Amino acid sequence: AARVALAVPMIGTALAGNIVNGSIVVAVSAAVYLWLRPPRPAKKSEDEEELDPKRRGICNDRYSDSKVPEKIDAIIIGSGMSGLTCATILSRAGKRVLVLEQHDRTGGGTHTYDLGPNGNYTFDSGLHYLIPECGKLLQLCTGGNEPPIQFEVMGEPNPDGSQTYDRIYVGRDAPFDVKLWQRHIPDFYARFPDRRADVDRYIREATKSVDAIPYFVLSKFMPLWLQKFLAPVLLRNFRRYTARTMKQALQEITDEPRLAALFGSLWIDTGCPPEDSTFMLGAAVLWGFPQRGGAYPRGGSQGMSASLIPVVEAAGGRVLVRAEVKEIVVETGSGRPRVTGVRMANGTVHNAPLVVSSIGFRNTYGEGGLVPAAATEAAGMPTDLPVRDSNGFVMVNLGLKGTSKEMGIGCANAWVAPTDPVTNDMFDSLKRFWEDPVGSVADIPMFISFPSLKDRDWETKNPGRHTCQILMMVETKWFLKWREGKSGNRGADYEALKDKFKEAAVAKLTELYPGVKGKIDFSDVSSPLTIEHYVRGRMGGAVGLDHTPDRFVNWEIQRWLDSSTRIRGLWQTGQDTIMCGQPLVQLAGLATAMRILGPLASLRVVLQSMFFDVPSWRR
Protein backbone atom coordinates (compact mmCIF):
# COMPACT_ATOMS: atom_id res chain seq x y z
CA ALA A 1 0.00 0.00 0.00
CA ALA A 2 2.86 2.32 0.85
CA ARG A 3 4.51 1.59 -2.45
CA VAL A 4 1.26 2.26 -4.30
CA ALA A 5 0.83 5.50 -2.39
CA LEU A 6 4.32 6.56 -3.46
CA ALA A 7 3.83 5.43 -7.07
CA VAL A 8 0.56 7.28 -7.70
CA PRO A 9 2.07 10.78 -7.52
CA MET A 10 5.03 9.65 -9.63
CA ILE A 11 2.70 8.23 -12.27
CA GLY A 12 0.65 11.40 -12.19
CA THR A 13 3.77 13.51 -12.61
CA ALA A 14 4.94 11.37 -15.51
CA LEU A 15 1.51 11.53 -17.18
CA ALA A 16 1.40 15.28 -16.70
CA GLY A 17 4.89 15.55 -18.20
CA ASN A 18 3.90 13.42 -21.17
CA ILE A 19 0.77 15.47 -21.68
CA VAL A 20 2.80 18.67 -21.60
CA ASN A 21 5.40 17.23 -23.97
CA GLY A 22 2.68 15.91 -26.23
CA SER A 23 0.96 19.27 -26.19
CA ILE A 24 4.22 20.95 -27.18
CA VAL A 25 4.70 18.47 -30.04
CA VAL A 26 1.10 18.99 -31.20
CA ALA A 27 1.46 22.77 -30.95
CA VAL A 28 4.74 22.79 -32.84
CA SER A 29 3.34 20.44 -35.49
CA ALA A 30 0.26 22.62 -35.87
CA ALA A 31 2.42 25.72 -36.14
CA VAL A 32 4.60 24.07 -38.81
CA TYR A 33 1.50 22.90 -40.66
CA LEU A 34 -0.06 26.34 -40.61
CA TRP A 35 3.25 27.88 -41.74
CA LEU A 36 3.64 25.39 -44.57
CA ARG A 37 0.01 25.41 -45.68
CA PRO A 38 -0.20 27.06 -49.12
CA PRO A 39 -1.85 30.50 -49.18
CA ARG A 40 -5.51 30.62 -50.15
CA PRO A 41 -5.86 31.17 -53.89
CA ALA A 42 -7.37 34.43 -55.10
CA LYS A 43 -9.30 32.37 -57.66
CA LYS A 44 -11.82 29.92 -56.18
CA SER A 45 -12.89 26.47 -57.32
CA GLU A 46 -15.57 27.82 -59.65
CA ASP A 47 -12.77 29.45 -61.66
CA GLU A 48 -11.09 26.13 -62.48
CA GLU A 49 -12.12 26.23 -66.13
CA GLU A 50 -10.80 29.76 -66.45
CA LEU A 51 -7.49 28.65 -64.91
CA ASP A 52 -7.10 25.52 -67.06
CA PRO A 53 -3.66 25.64 -68.76
CA LYS A 54 -5.23 24.09 -71.87
CA ARG A 55 -7.87 26.75 -72.26
CA ARG A 56 -7.98 28.54 -75.58
CA GLY A 57 -5.94 31.72 -75.73
CA ILE A 58 -4.16 31.26 -72.40
CA CYS A 59 -0.86 32.34 -73.97
CA ASN A 60 -2.41 35.25 -75.90
CA ASP A 61 -4.17 37.35 -73.25
CA ARG A 62 -3.85 40.79 -74.82
CA TYR A 63 -2.97 43.74 -72.62
CA SER A 64 -5.39 46.48 -71.72
CA ASP A 65 -5.26 48.82 -68.74
CA SER A 66 -8.49 47.36 -67.39
CA LYS A 67 -7.00 43.85 -67.15
CA VAL A 68 -4.25 44.87 -64.74
CA PRO A 69 -5.02 43.70 -61.17
CA GLU A 70 -5.10 46.12 -58.28
CA LYS A 71 -2.37 46.25 -55.62
CA ILE A 72 0.39 44.53 -57.57
CA ASP A 73 3.25 43.14 -55.50
CA ALA A 74 5.65 42.55 -58.37
CA ILE A 75 5.96 43.23 -62.10
CA ILE A 76 7.95 40.86 -64.32
CA ILE A 77 9.04 42.18 -67.73
CA GLY A 78 9.24 39.32 -70.22
CA SER A 79 7.44 35.95 -70.25
CA GLY A 80 10.28 33.61 -71.15
CA MET A 81 11.07 30.71 -68.87
CA SER A 82 13.16 32.84 -66.51
CA GLY A 83 10.45 35.48 -66.10
CA LEU A 84 7.61 32.99 -65.68
CA THR A 85 9.61 30.76 -63.32
CA CYS A 86 10.32 33.79 -61.14
CA ALA A 87 6.67 34.87 -61.35
CA THR A 88 5.29 31.48 -60.31
CA ILE A 89 7.60 31.08 -57.31
CA LEU A 90 6.65 34.58 -56.12
CA SER A 91 2.98 33.71 -56.70
CA ARG A 92 3.28 30.51 -54.70
CA ALA A 93 4.65 32.64 -51.86
CA GLY A 94 1.42 34.67 -51.93
CA LYS A 95 2.48 37.63 -54.07
CA ARG A 96 0.26 39.16 -56.76
CA VAL A 97 2.38 39.30 -59.91
CA LEU A 98 1.86 41.06 -63.23
CA VAL A 99 3.84 39.62 -66.17
CA LEU A 100 4.17 41.89 -69.22
CA GLU A 101 5.21 40.46 -72.61
CA GLN A 102 5.72 42.69 -75.68
CA HIS A 103 5.21 39.82 -78.18
CA ASP A 104 1.79 38.44 -79.13
CA ARG A 105 2.29 35.21 -77.17
CA THR A 106 4.07 34.05 -74.04
CA GLY A 107 7.11 31.83 -73.76
CA GLY A 108 10.10 33.82 -75.03
CA GLY A 109 12.49 31.25 -76.49
CA THR A 110 9.94 28.48 -75.84
CA HIS A 111 7.09 29.99 -77.84
CA THR A 112 5.94 28.38 -81.08
CA TYR A 113 4.44 29.93 -84.19
CA ASP A 114 2.30 28.65 -87.05
CA LEU A 115 3.19 29.17 -90.69
CA GLY A 116 2.08 27.79 -94.04
CA PRO A 117 -0.90 28.30 -96.36
CA ASN A 118 -3.37 27.58 -93.56
CA GLY A 119 -1.06 28.01 -90.60
CA ASN A 120 -0.84 24.23 -90.40
CA TYR A 121 2.91 23.96 -89.72
CA THR A 122 4.13 24.69 -86.20
CA PHE A 123 7.73 25.75 -85.56
CA ASP A 124 9.87 26.35 -82.48
CA SER A 125 11.26 29.82 -81.91
CA GLY A 126 14.29 28.70 -79.96
CA LEU A 127 13.86 25.47 -78.02
CA HIS A 128 15.26 22.50 -79.90
CA TYR A 129 15.90 20.17 -77.00
CA LEU A 130 16.53 20.23 -73.25
CA ILE A 131 16.99 17.73 -70.41
CA PRO A 132 14.27 15.69 -68.63
CA GLU A 133 14.91 17.52 -65.33
CA CYS A 134 13.20 20.59 -66.79
CA GLY A 135 9.94 18.86 -65.91
CA LYS A 136 10.95 18.77 -62.23
CA LEU A 137 11.65 22.50 -62.31
CA LEU A 138 8.19 23.10 -63.79
CA GLN A 139 6.73 20.88 -61.07
CA LEU A 140 8.39 23.00 -58.38
CA CYS A 141 6.76 26.06 -59.95
CA THR A 142 3.27 24.59 -60.25
CA GLY A 143 3.13 22.27 -57.25
CA GLY A 144 1.49 18.88 -57.51
CA ASN A 145 2.96 15.41 -57.39
CA GLU A 146 4.02 15.21 -61.04
CA PRO A 147 5.32 17.58 -63.75
CA PRO A 148 2.55 19.56 -65.47
CA ILE A 149 3.70 18.35 -68.89
CA GLN A 150 5.63 15.30 -70.04
CA PHE A 151 9.16 15.48 -71.39
CA GLU A 152 9.93 12.67 -73.80
CA VAL A 153 13.54 11.53 -74.14
CA MET A 154 14.65 11.90 -77.76
CA GLY A 155 16.38 9.12 -79.63
CA GLU A 156 16.37 6.97 -82.75
CA PRO A 157 16.83 3.27 -81.81
CA ASN A 158 19.97 1.44 -82.94
CA PRO A 159 20.44 -2.34 -83.39
CA ASP A 160 22.59 -2.53 -80.22
CA GLY A 161 19.78 -1.06 -78.11
CA SER A 162 21.30 2.42 -77.85
CA GLN A 163 19.51 5.56 -79.03
CA THR A 164 20.92 8.38 -81.16
CA TYR A 165 19.68 11.92 -80.56
CA ASP A 166 22.47 13.91 -82.29
CA ARG A 167 24.18 12.96 -85.55
CA ILE A 168 27.35 14.85 -86.45
CA TYR A 169 28.70 15.29 -89.98
CA VAL A 170 32.35 16.41 -89.74
CA GLY A 171 33.85 17.23 -93.12
CA ARG A 172 33.84 14.16 -95.33
CA ASP A 173 33.88 11.69 -92.44
CA ALA A 174 31.06 9.21 -91.88
CA PRO A 175 28.38 10.55 -89.51
CA PHE A 176 29.07 10.19 -85.80
CA ASP A 177 26.12 9.30 -83.56
CA VAL A 178 25.83 10.94 -80.13
CA LYS A 179 23.86 8.48 -78.01
CA LEU A 180 21.81 8.75 -74.87
CA TRP A 181 23.66 8.25 -71.59
CA GLN A 182 27.05 8.53 -73.32
CA ARG A 183 26.91 5.12 -74.97
CA HIS A 184 28.91 6.58 -77.85
CA ILE A 185 32.16 6.85 -75.83
CA PRO A 186 33.63 3.60 -77.32
CA ASP A 187 32.98 5.09 -80.78
CA PHE A 188 35.48 7.89 -80.09
CA TYR A 189 38.21 5.29 -79.59
CA ALA A 190 37.07 3.19 -82.54
CA ARG A 191 37.22 6.13 -84.92
CA PHE A 192 40.58 7.40 -83.64
CA PRO A 193 42.37 4.28 -82.34
CA ASP A 194 45.79 5.98 -82.31
CA ARG A 195 44.44 8.96 -80.35
CA ARG A 196 43.30 7.27 -77.15
CA ALA A 197 45.36 9.64 -75.01
CA ASP A 198 43.74 12.66 -76.65
CA VAL A 199 40.26 11.22 -76.16
CA ASP A 200 41.08 10.45 -72.53
CA ARG A 201 42.30 13.99 -71.97
CA TYR A 202 39.16 15.49 -73.53
CA ILE A 203 36.95 13.30 -71.35
CA ARG A 204 38.86 14.34 -68.21
CA GLU A 205 38.74 18.05 -68.96
CA ALA A 206 35.15 18.01 -70.23
CA THR A 207 34.02 16.09 -67.14
CA LYS A 208 35.69 18.53 -64.76
CA SER A 209 34.29 21.47 -66.71
CA VAL A 210 30.72 20.15 -66.71
CA ASP A 211 30.94 19.08 -63.05
CA ALA A 212 31.92 22.66 -62.10
CA ILE A 213 28.79 24.25 -63.62
CA PRO A 214 26.46 23.38 -60.68
CA TYR A 215 28.76 25.29 -58.32
CA PHE A 216 28.47 28.38 -60.50
CA VAL A 217 24.68 28.03 -60.56
CA LEU A 218 24.60 27.47 -56.80
CA SER A 219 26.55 30.68 -56.25
CA LYS A 220 23.77 32.62 -57.99
CA PHE A 221 21.41 31.72 -55.14
CA MET A 222 23.71 33.57 -52.73
CA PRO A 223 24.00 37.28 -51.92
CA LEU A 224 26.59 39.11 -53.99
CA TRP A 225 29.01 39.58 -51.08
CA LEU A 226 28.95 35.85 -50.32
CA GLN A 227 29.53 34.99 -53.98
CA LYS A 228 32.66 37.12 -53.99
CA PHE A 229 33.88 35.68 -50.68
CA LEU A 230 33.43 32.03 -51.69
CA ALA A 231 34.41 32.33 -55.36
CA PRO A 232 38.16 31.58 -54.91
CA VAL A 233 37.26 28.17 -53.45
CA LEU A 234 33.77 27.37 -54.76
CA LEU A 235 34.45 28.44 -58.35
CA ARG A 236 38.12 27.51 -58.64
CA ASN A 237 37.56 24.67 -61.14
CA PHE A 238 34.78 26.54 -62.92
CA ARG A 239 37.03 29.52 -63.59
CA ARG A 240 39.92 27.27 -64.60
CA TYR A 241 37.99 25.46 -67.32
CA THR A 242 35.99 28.50 -68.38
CA ALA A 243 39.07 30.70 -68.88
CA ARG A 244 39.92 29.15 -72.29
CA THR A 245 38.08 29.46 -75.56
CA MET A 246 36.90 26.29 -77.22
CA LYS A 247 39.52 26.70 -79.92
CA GLN A 248 42.36 27.13 -77.39
CA ALA A 249 41.27 24.10 -75.39
CA LEU A 250 40.89 21.84 -78.41
CA GLN A 251 44.31 22.81 -79.76
CA GLU A 252 45.83 21.92 -76.38
CA ILE A 253 43.97 18.60 -76.19
CA THR A 254 44.81 17.27 -79.66
CA ASP A 255 46.69 18.14 -82.84
CA GLU A 256 44.44 15.85 -84.91
CA PRO A 257 42.13 18.36 -86.71
CA ARG A 258 39.37 15.84 -87.43
CA LEU A 259 39.17 14.86 -83.76
CA ALA A 260 39.21 18.53 -82.70
CA ALA A 261 36.39 19.22 -85.16
CA LEU A 262 34.35 16.36 -83.72
CA PHE A 263 34.84 17.57 -80.14
CA GLY A 264 33.89 21.12 -81.16
CA SER A 265 31.17 20.25 -83.67
CA LEU A 266 28.14 21.36 -81.59
CA TRP A 267 29.45 24.91 -81.17
CA ILE A 268 26.35 26.41 -82.87
CA ASP A 269 24.39 25.44 -79.73
CA THR A 270 26.45 27.92 -77.67
CA GLY A 271 25.34 30.94 -79.73
CA CYS A 272 28.99 31.91 -80.12
CA PRO A 273 31.73 30.98 -82.62
CA PRO A 274 34.17 28.37 -81.24
CA GLU A 275 37.13 30.72 -81.51
CA ASP A 276 35.36 33.03 -79.02
CA SER A 277 33.11 30.83 -76.85
CA THR A 278 34.24 29.31 -73.58
CA PHE A 279 35.31 25.66 -73.60
CA MET A 280 32.98 25.07 -70.65
CA LEU A 281 29.88 25.58 -72.78
CA GLY A 282 31.21 23.49 -75.65
CA ALA A 283 31.85 20.66 -73.19
CA ALA A 284 28.35 21.07 -71.77
CA VAL A 285 26.60 20.52 -75.11
CA LEU A 286 28.71 17.55 -76.32
CA TRP A 287 29.65 15.93 -73.02
CA GLY A 288 27.07 17.12 -70.47
CA PHE A 289 23.84 16.72 -72.43
CA PRO A 290 24.35 13.01 -73.22
CA GLN A 291 24.72 12.29 -69.48
CA ARG A 292 21.07 13.24 -68.97
CA GLY A 293 19.69 12.67 -72.47
CA GLY A 294 18.06 15.16 -74.80
CA ALA A 295 14.33 15.61 -74.25
CA TYR A 296 11.39 17.49 -75.74
CA PRO A 297 8.01 18.53 -74.27
CA ARG A 298 5.05 16.44 -75.41
CA GLY A 299 2.61 18.69 -77.25
CA GLY A 300 5.29 21.25 -78.13
CA SER A 301 7.28 23.86 -76.26
CA GLN A 302 4.41 26.39 -76.03
CA GLY A 303 2.94 24.18 -73.33
CA MET A 304 5.75 25.12 -70.96
CA SER A 305 4.58 28.71 -70.52
CA ALA A 306 0.92 27.61 -70.64
CA SER A 307 1.50 25.33 -67.64
CA LEU A 308 2.85 28.21 -65.52
CA ILE A 309 0.31 30.94 -66.25
CA PRO A 310 -2.51 29.48 -64.05
CA VAL A 311 -0.21 29.62 -61.01
CA VAL A 312 0.18 33.37 -61.47
CA GLU A 313 -3.54 33.82 -62.09
CA ALA A 314 -4.53 31.71 -59.07
CA ALA A 315 -2.67 34.15 -56.82
CA GLY A 316 -4.58 37.09 -58.34
CA GLY A 317 -1.94 38.03 -60.91
CA ARG A 318 -2.07 38.27 -64.69
CA VAL A 319 0.11 37.40 -67.69
CA LEU A 320 -0.52 39.82 -70.58
CA VAL A 321 0.90 39.99 -74.10
CA ARG A 322 1.31 42.91 -76.52
CA ALA A 323 2.21 44.77 -73.35
CA GLU A 324 5.11 46.98 -74.33
CA VAL A 325 6.94 48.56 -71.40
CA LYS A 326 8.45 51.92 -72.27
CA GLU A 327 10.29 52.65 -69.03
CA ILE A 328 11.06 51.28 -65.60
CA VAL A 329 10.08 54.12 -63.29
CA VAL A 330 12.77 54.93 -60.73
CA GLU A 331 12.62 57.48 -57.95
CA THR A 332 16.01 59.22 -57.74
CA GLY A 333 15.50 61.69 -54.93
CA SER A 334 17.60 61.67 -51.79
CA GLY A 335 19.24 58.38 -50.89
CA ARG A 336 19.50 55.20 -52.94
CA PRO A 337 17.36 55.10 -56.13
CA ARG A 338 14.16 53.08 -55.74
CA VAL A 339 11.90 51.48 -58.33
CA THR A 340 8.24 52.45 -58.20
CA GLY A 341 6.74 50.66 -61.21
CA VAL A 342 6.68 50.72 -65.02
CA ARG A 343 5.40 53.06 -67.70
CA MET A 344 3.68 51.42 -70.66
CA ALA A 345 3.94 52.48 -74.30
CA ASN A 346 0.48 54.08 -74.01
CA GLY A 347 1.69 56.20 -71.09
CA THR A 348 -0.09 54.32 -68.31
CA VAL A 349 1.97 53.81 -65.16
CA HIS A 350 1.55 50.65 -63.08
CA ASN A 351 2.99 50.90 -59.59
CA ALA A 352 4.73 48.08 -57.74
CA PRO A 353 7.45 47.93 -55.10
CA LEU A 354 9.23 45.20 -57.04
CA VAL A 355 10.19 44.99 -60.74
CA VAL A 356 12.10 42.09 -62.32
CA SER A 357 13.59 42.45 -65.80
CA SER A 358 14.09 39.22 -67.72
CA ILE A 359 14.92 40.89 -71.04
CA GLY A 360 18.71 41.05 -70.77
CA PHE A 361 21.30 43.48 -69.44
CA ARG A 362 21.50 45.82 -72.43
CA ASN A 363 17.74 45.92 -73.00
CA THR A 364 17.40 46.94 -69.36
CA TYR A 365 20.27 49.40 -68.82
CA GLY A 366 21.92 50.08 -72.18
CA GLU A 367 21.26 52.77 -74.74
CA GLY A 368 17.54 52.77 -75.44
CA GLY A 369 16.99 50.46 -72.44
CA LEU A 370 14.17 50.67 -69.92
CA VAL A 371 16.04 52.17 -66.96
CA PRO A 372 16.58 55.94 -67.38
CA ALA A 373 20.21 57.05 -67.62
CA ALA A 374 19.71 59.35 -64.64
CA ALA A 375 18.78 56.33 -62.51
CA THR A 376 21.80 54.22 -63.48
CA GLU A 377 24.06 57.23 -62.94
CA ALA A 378 22.58 57.90 -59.51
CA ALA A 379 23.02 54.23 -58.60
CA GLY A 380 26.59 54.11 -59.88
CA MET A 381 25.75 51.37 -62.38
CA PRO A 382 27.29 50.87 -65.85
CA THR A 383 25.09 51.05 -68.92
CA ASP A 384 27.32 48.69 -70.88
CA LEU A 385 29.80 45.87 -70.30
CA PRO A 386 32.91 44.73 -72.22
CA VAL A 387 31.05 41.73 -73.65
CA ARG A 388 29.58 41.77 -77.13
CA ASP A 389 26.12 40.52 -78.01
CA SER A 390 25.79 36.93 -79.16
CA ASN A 391 25.54 36.01 -82.82
CA GLY A 392 22.24 35.77 -84.63
CA PHE A 393 20.94 33.04 -86.90
CA VAL A 394 19.37 32.57 -90.27
CA MET A 395 16.64 29.99 -89.73
CA VAL A 396 14.99 28.18 -92.62
CA ASN A 397 11.54 26.79 -91.76
CA LEU A 398 10.24 24.07 -94.05
CA GLY A 399 6.85 22.37 -94.19
CA LEU A 400 7.13 18.83 -95.53
CA LYS A 401 4.38 16.68 -97.03
CA GLY A 402 4.93 12.98 -96.56
CA THR A 403 5.50 10.39 -93.87
CA SER A 404 8.71 10.23 -91.86
CA LYS A 405 9.36 6.74 -93.19
CA GLU A 406 9.19 7.68 -96.87
CA MET A 407 11.34 10.79 -96.30
CA GLY A 408 13.86 8.93 -94.15
CA ILE A 409 13.80 11.50 -91.36
CA GLY A 410 13.86 11.01 -87.58
CA CYS A 411 13.93 12.89 -84.31
CA ALA A 412 17.75 13.02 -84.10
CA ASN A 413 19.31 16.42 -84.77
CA ALA A 414 21.90 16.73 -87.55
CA TRP A 415 24.99 18.91 -87.07
CA VAL A 416 27.05 19.88 -90.10
CA ALA A 417 30.63 20.92 -89.28
CA PRO A 418 32.55 21.55 -92.53
CA THR A 419 36.33 21.20 -92.57
CA ASP A 420 38.99 22.32 -95.01
CA PRO A 421 39.37 19.67 -97.74
CA VAL A 422 43.18 19.86 -97.53
CA THR A 423 43.96 20.45 -93.82
CA ASN A 424 40.79 18.81 -92.39
CA ASP A 425 40.69 21.81 -90.03
CA MET A 426 37.28 23.13 -88.98
CA PHE A 427 38.71 26.54 -88.14
CA ASP A 428 40.17 27.04 -91.63
CA SER A 429 36.72 26.39 -93.08
CA LEU A 430 35.10 28.73 -90.55
CA LYS A 431 37.53 31.52 -91.43
CA ARG A 432 36.38 31.40 -95.05
CA PHE A 433 32.74 31.39 -93.97
CA TRP A 434 33.06 34.49 -91.76
CA GLU A 435 34.88 36.30 -94.56
CA ASP A 436 32.46 35.34 -97.36
CA PRO A 437 29.23 33.86 -95.92
CA VAL A 438 27.56 32.82 -99.16
CA GLY A 439 30.58 32.65 -101.44
CA SER A 440 31.48 29.11 -100.38
CA VAL A 441 28.37 27.05 -99.73
CA ALA A 442 30.48 24.08 -98.64
CA ASP A 443 31.76 26.08 -95.62
CA ILE A 444 28.37 26.91 -94.07
CA PRO A 445 27.91 25.16 -90.69
CA MET A 446 24.33 24.05 -90.02
CA PHE A 447 22.00 22.55 -87.46
CA ILE A 448 19.07 20.52 -88.87
CA SER A 449 16.09 19.59 -86.72
CA PHE A 450 12.65 18.02 -87.22
CA PRO A 451 10.42 19.49 -84.46
CA SER A 452 7.37 17.50 -85.51
CA LEU A 453 9.19 14.22 -84.84
CA LYS A 454 10.39 15.30 -81.39
CA ASP A 455 6.80 15.91 -80.30
CA ARG A 456 5.27 12.46 -79.81
CA ASP A 457 1.75 13.87 -80.27
CA TRP A 458 2.35 15.57 -83.63
CA GLU A 459 2.21 12.65 -86.07
CA THR A 460 -1.09 11.28 -84.76
CA LYS A 461 -2.74 14.70 -85.01
CA ASN A 462 -1.07 15.75 -88.28
CA PRO A 463 -0.59 12.64 -90.44
CA GLY A 464 1.49 13.10 -93.55
CA ARG A 465 2.80 16.50 -92.51
CA HIS A 466 6.12 17.40 -90.85
CA THR A 467 8.32 20.38 -90.06
CA CYS A 468 12.02 20.97 -90.49
CA GLN A 469 14.22 23.81 -89.21
CA ILE A 470 17.74 24.57 -90.40
CA LEU A 471 19.86 27.04 -88.40
CA MET A 472 22.98 28.80 -89.65
CA MET A 473 24.90 31.13 -87.34
CA VAL A 474 25.61 34.50 -88.95
CA GLU A 475 26.95 37.96 -88.15
CA THR A 476 24.15 40.46 -87.64
CA LYS A 477 26.24 43.15 -89.35
CA TRP A 478 25.61 41.37 -92.66
CA PHE A 479 21.94 42.41 -92.36
CA LEU A 480 22.13 45.82 -90.67
CA LYS A 481 21.60 47.91 -93.81
CA TRP A 482 18.03 46.60 -93.93
CA ARG A 483 17.30 47.19 -90.22
CA GLU A 484 15.24 50.33 -90.79
CA GLY A 485 12.92 48.57 -93.22
CA LYS A 486 9.55 47.29 -92.10
CA SER A 487 9.32 43.63 -91.11
CA GLY A 488 8.02 41.67 -94.07
CA ASN A 489 8.94 44.43 -96.53
CA ARG A 490 12.69 45.03 -96.42
CA GLY A 491 13.31 44.92 -100.14
CA ALA A 492 14.47 42.59 -102.91
CA ASP A 493 18.17 42.58 -101.91
CA TYR A 494 17.31 41.42 -98.40
CA GLU A 495 15.14 38.62 -99.75
CA ALA A 496 17.86 37.65 -102.22
CA LEU A 497 20.41 37.23 -99.41
CA LYS A 498 17.98 35.10 -97.42
CA ASP A 499 17.31 33.01 -100.53
CA LYS A 500 21.01 32.23 -100.88
CA PHE A 501 21.07 30.82 -97.37
CA LYS A 502 17.86 28.89 -98.06
CA GLU A 503 19.28 27.34 -101.23
CA ALA A 504 22.38 26.20 -99.36
CA ALA A 505 20.28 24.80 -96.51
CA VAL A 506 17.89 22.89 -98.77
CA ALA A 507 20.81 21.51 -100.78
CA LYS A 508 22.45 20.12 -97.63
CA LEU A 509 19.11 18.80 -96.34
CA THR A 510 18.38 16.84 -99.52
CA GLU A 511 21.97 15.57 -99.61
CA LEU A 512 21.62 14.09 -96.11
CA TYR A 513 17.95 13.10 -96.49
CA PRO A 514 17.33 12.31 -100.21
CA GLY A 515 13.73 11.30 -99.46
CA VAL A 516 12.86 14.94 -98.76
CA LYS A 517 13.29 15.89 -102.43
CA GLY A 518 9.95 16.94 -103.89
CA LYS A 519 8.30 16.95 -100.45
CA ILE A 520 8.81 20.61 -99.52
CA ASP A 521 5.37 22.19 -99.33
CA PHE A 522 6.26 25.48 -97.67
CA SER A 523 9.34 27.54 -96.81
CA ASP A 524 10.08 30.62 -94.75
CA VAL A 525 13.38 32.27 -93.81
CA SER A 526 14.11 34.43 -90.77
CA SER A 527 17.22 36.49 -90.05
CA PRO A 528 18.77 38.24 -87.03
CA LEU A 529 16.47 41.16 -87.81
CA THR A 530 13.53 38.80 -87.21
CA ILE A 531 14.95 37.88 -83.78
CA GLU A 532 15.46 41.57 -83.03
CA HIS A 533 11.87 42.37 -84.04
CA TYR A 534 9.99 39.59 -82.28
CA VAL A 535 12.02 38.74 -79.18
CA ARG A 536 13.99 42.00 -78.89
CA GLY A 537 17.37 40.30 -79.03
CA ARG A 538 19.99 43.06 -79.13
CA MET A 539 21.84 42.98 -82.47
CA GLY A 540 19.74 39.95 -83.36
CA GLY A 541 21.54 37.89 -80.73
CA ALA A 542 19.74 34.67 -79.87
CA VAL A 543 21.28 33.99 -76.44
CA GLY A 544 21.91 37.41 -74.90
CA LEU A 545 25.46 38.41 -74.04
CA ASP A 546 28.23 36.39 -75.67
CA HIS A 547 29.48 33.35 -73.75
CA THR A 548 33.15 34.30 -73.79
CA PRO A 549 35.67 33.33 -71.09
CA ASP A 550 36.00 36.89 -69.80
CA ARG A 551 32.27 37.10 -69.11
CA PHE A 552 32.53 34.29 -66.56
CA VAL A 553 35.94 34.81 -64.97
CA ASN A 554 35.99 38.62 -64.72
CA TRP A 555 34.38 39.68 -61.43
CA GLU A 556 33.88 43.25 -62.71
CA ILE A 557 31.51 41.77 -65.30
CA GLN A 558 29.90 39.14 -63.11
CA ARG A 559 29.01 41.59 -60.34
CA TRP A 560 26.78 43.58 -62.72
CA LEU A 561 25.12 40.42 -64.04
CA ASP A 562 23.95 39.43 -60.56
CA SER A 563 20.18 39.22 -60.10
CA SER A 564 20.31 42.01 -57.47
CA THR A 565 20.96 45.61 -58.51
CA ARG A 566 21.89 48.88 -56.85
CA ILE A 567 18.38 50.19 -57.46
CA ARG A 568 16.13 49.15 -54.58
CA GLY A 569 13.29 46.91 -55.71
CA LEU A 570 14.82 46.28 -59.17
CA TRP A 571 16.03 42.78 -59.98
CA GLN A 572 17.11 40.98 -63.14
CA THR A 573 16.93 37.39 -64.30
CA GLY A 574 17.43 35.35 -67.46
CA GLN A 575 20.29 33.99 -69.51
CA ASP A 576 22.52 37.01 -68.88
CA THR A 577 22.50 36.29 -65.13
CA ILE A 578 23.63 32.66 -65.51
CA MET A 579 24.00 31.40 -69.10
CA CYS A 580 21.94 30.22 -72.07
CA GLY A 581 19.92 27.01 -72.27
CA GLN A 582 16.36 26.50 -71.08
CA PRO A 583 17.24 24.47 -67.93
CA LEU A 584 19.71 27.17 -66.86
CA VAL A 585 17.25 29.93 -67.70
CA GLN A 586 14.67 28.20 -65.48
CA LEU A 587 17.26 28.06 -62.70
CA ALA A 588 17.98 31.75 -63.22
CA GLY A 589 14.31 32.57 -62.59
CA LEU A 590 14.29 30.29 -59.55
CA ALA A 591 17.45 31.92 -58.14
CA THR A 592 16.07 35.43 -58.58
CA ALA A 593 12.76 34.56 -56.92
CA MET A 594 14.45 32.89 -53.97
CA ARG A 595 16.85 35.80 -53.54
CA ILE A 596 13.84 38.13 -53.43
CA LEU A 597 11.89 35.97 -50.96
CA GLY A 598 14.78 35.13 -48.67
CA PRO A 599 15.75 31.71 -47.27
CA LEU A 600 12.74 31.05 -45.01
CA ALA A 601 10.04 31.91 -47.54
CA SER A 602 11.94 29.99 -50.23
CA LEU A 603 12.23 26.95 -47.96
CA ARG A 604 8.49 27.16 -47.33
CA VAL A 605 7.73 26.93 -51.06
CA VAL A 606 10.05 23.94 -51.45
CA LEU A 607 8.59 22.11 -48.43
CA GLN A 608 5.05 22.79 -49.66
CA SER A 609 5.98 20.96 -52.85
CA MET A 610 7.33 18.03 -50.80
CA PHE A 611 4.54 17.61 -48.26
CA PHE A 612 1.44 19.12 -49.84
CA ASP A 613 -0.33 18.07 -52.98
CA VAL A 614 -0.61 21.53 -54.51
CA PRO A 615 -1.97 20.93 -58.01
CA SER A 616 -1.41 24.56 -59.08
CA TRP A 617 -4.73 26.32 -59.52
CA ARG A 618 -6.84 23.50 -57.97
CA ARG A 619 -5.84 24.08 -54.36
What does this structure look like?
- The longest helix has 35 residues, at 2-36.
- It is globular, with a radius of gyration of 27 Å.
- The model has no long low-confidence stretch (mean pLDDT 91).
- Helix 5 (196-219) crosses helix 7 (236-242).
- The chain is built from 23 helices and 20 strands.
- With 619 residues, the chain is α/β, with parallel strands linked by helices.
- Helix 2 links the parallel strand 1 (74-77) and strand 2.
- Strands 6, 7, 8, 15, 16, 17, 18 and 19 form an 8-stranded mixed beta sheet that branches. A 5-stranded parallel beta sheet has the order 10-2-1-14-20, covered by helices on one side. Strands 11-12-13 form a 3-stranded antiparallel beta sheet, with no helix packed on it.
Shape: globular
What percentage of amino acids are in beta strands?
15-25%
**Class computed from helices, strands and strand pairing:** alpha/beta
Helical amount: 25-40%
| Alpha carbon gap, first and last residue | 60 Å
Counted by DSSP, the helix tally is 23
Give the C-alpha Rg.
Answer: 27 Å
- Average of the residue pLDDT scores: 91
Largest sheet, strands/sense/barrel = 8 strands, mixed
Contiguous uncertain segments of 5+ residues: none
Number of β-strand runs: 20
